[in-house]
Write a structure and sequence with these properties.
- This protein is an alpha+beta fold.
- Helix content is 31%, strand content 19%.
- The chain has helices at residues 47-54, 67-79, 87-104, 117-131, 149-154, 180-187, 202-212, 219-232, 283-290, 360-381, 423-431, 436-439; strands spanning 31-36, 59-62, 107-110, 137-140, 172-175, 192-195, 260-264, 269-272, 300-301, 306-308, 313-316, 323-326, 329-331, 339-342, 347-356, 389-395, 411-420.
- The strands form 4 sheets. It has a 9-stranded mixed beta sheet with strand order 4-6-3-2-1-7-8-12-11, sandwiched between helices. Strands 9-10-13 form a 3-stranded antiparallel beta sheet, covered by helices on one side.
- Helix 1 runs parallel beside helix 3 and helix 3 packs across helix 4.
- The longest helix is centred in the last third of the chain and has 22 residues, at 360-381.
- It is globular, with a radius of gyration of 24 Å.
């Protein structure tokens, strides 16, 4: 059973659907407006109040999770079993905005549950109870597969990208769930839905399934809703935050608007941002986000649908910062789910130091190699193995350009990163770094 729900009220009151008044003539019938206030754990806390107060949204969604985030949360939960979720969600979103969310009838969907959605729900219940705000909280669980570790190991599960065998031990193991669980919890009356690991786009697709009643075989609609979620899931990335033609938006980055999609029941939607905010929404910004991390655009696999984005049409509308998206196609999803597992793989240390002067690039490489050689001499004395990984780079010397790099820069930054199976080895390595200030030309 993939989905289980938790609620902070024994009695769920009837709630009318939260549908916006249509803003664009190209969208037929009633529409739903969804704004995304977080593209990662640590994104600006200014986004949520902007969308709640200026975005004219029906749903506020927040994406906190990445693979590295799951490993960090798993480590926290191991030390403190009542944690392992994103506390920022409570402190920076719900606590300051709970009254506005209630008054405006906005519903919230966030994967802030991390590796402990149940604990996140308990914390939310406590916060809302203290404030006296009547918002119903639900959670989608079932992504945690730690109890099935032995079974999956027996099945010969291996790394999807390189075929590496199952790790000897894992700290966390979570399936990427789809949007159906979110839609179910919304249909049962939740105002705030918390999830663990799910695909990022499901945070938007779930509300659209709930509002429009899309069935499990409405593949074109599901693919459109998934693309809507994909285009906003990285926050300001789609509103000019990192666009190629960055000068078009750089002057207004400090007030950048966070993305909003206004969606119709037929699958068409418009990407936009709140009025009187910075940034840019254009055909270019939407196109760049569209191809971000999707692999094959003709077969982007998700739990609810396999998407074909190859014939998507992007059209800039007369309204400012508004792009119509249509032409998405979908087909049946795969019968498997992707799983992300985290495991301990040693320790890492990083050295960053400025280097100024003639032949600075060569100097960085000489210093890094000398630091490594000295550390290896120490390792031998303590019968420690060599580093498991070493990375040397002179930042500012265009070394990422390969043969086209400019190695004549007189001002660069040393970047030396090392990994080792034992923490004590890196502690010994760290003791030798400061010596470069007087003994290695730093």
């Amino acid at each position: 059973m993939w989905t289980r729900t938790f609620f902070d009220r024994a009695r769920l009151l009837h709630r009318s659907k939260c549908i916006s008044t249509r803003s664009y003539s190209c969208l037929k019938g009633k529409t739903v407006r969804i704004g995304c206030a977080s593209g990662f754990w640590g994104d600006t806390p200014q986004a949520a109040p902007q969308l709640v107060r200026q975005g004219k949204i029906n749903y506020l969604v927040l994406d906190y999770l990445s693979e590295i985030t799951m490993s960090l949360m798993a480590a926290v939960k191991k030390k403190k079993p009542d944690l392992g979720y994103a506390p920022d969600f409570l402190a920076a979103v719900i606590k300051p905005l709970q009254h506005a969310i209630k008054e405006k009838g906005i519903r919230v969907v966030a994967n802030a549950g991390g590796v402990n959605p149940a604990a996140c729900v308990v914390a939310l219940q406590h916060l809302l109870s203290e404030s006296g705000v009547d918002l119903r909280v639900g959670a989608v669980t079932g992504d945690d597969l730690m109890e099935q570790e032995a079974y999956l190991r027996e099945q010969g599960v291996c790394d999807i990208s390189n075929g590496d065998p199952f790790p000897d031990s894992v700290q966390s193991m979570n399936a990427y769930l789809g949007a159906r669980g979110i839609a179910t919890v919304l249909s049962e009356g939740a105002d705030i839905v918390v999830t663990g690991r799910c695909v990022d786009s499901a945070l938007a697709l779930g509300p659209l399934i709930h509002e429009f009643g899309w069935g499990s075989s409405d593949y074109n609609h599901l693919a459109s809703g998934s693309l809507a979620g994909h285009l906003i899931e990285c926050g300001a990335q789609s509103t000019g935050g990192i666009m190629t033609d960055w000068k078009q938006s750089a002057d207004s980055w400090s007030t950048i608007g966070f993305p909003v999609v206004e969606c119709a029941a037929d699958g068409k939607f418009v990407v936009t941002k709140p009025e009187d905010t910075g940034g840019v929404v254009s055909r270019c910004t939407v196109a760049e986000q569209l191809v971000y991390e999707i692999g094959d655009p003709r077969n982007y696999l998700l739990p609810d649908v396999a998407c074909d984005f190859s014939n998507v049409n992007l059209k800039e509308l007369p309204e400012p910062h508004s792009v119509l998206v249509e032409g998405v196609r979908g087909k049946a999803p795969p019968d498997t789910l992707k799983v992300s597992a985290t495991y301990m793989d040693g320790y890492r240390a990083t050295v960053v130091s400025p280097m100024i002067g003639p032949r600075a690039v060569q100097k960085v490489h000489s210093m890094c190699n000398s630091q490594l050689d000295r550390a290896r001499q120490v390792f031998k004395k303590f019968k420690l193995d060599d580093f498991s990984h070493v990375h040397i780079q002179a930042l500012g010397a265009e070394e990422s350009y390969g043969k086209n790099a400019n190695d004549s820069s007189r001002e660069v930054v040393q970047w030396l990163a090392v990994r080792h199976k034992k923490k004590e080895a890196l502690e010994l390595f760290a003791r030798e770094i400061a010596a470069a200030g007087t003994g290695m030309g730093s």
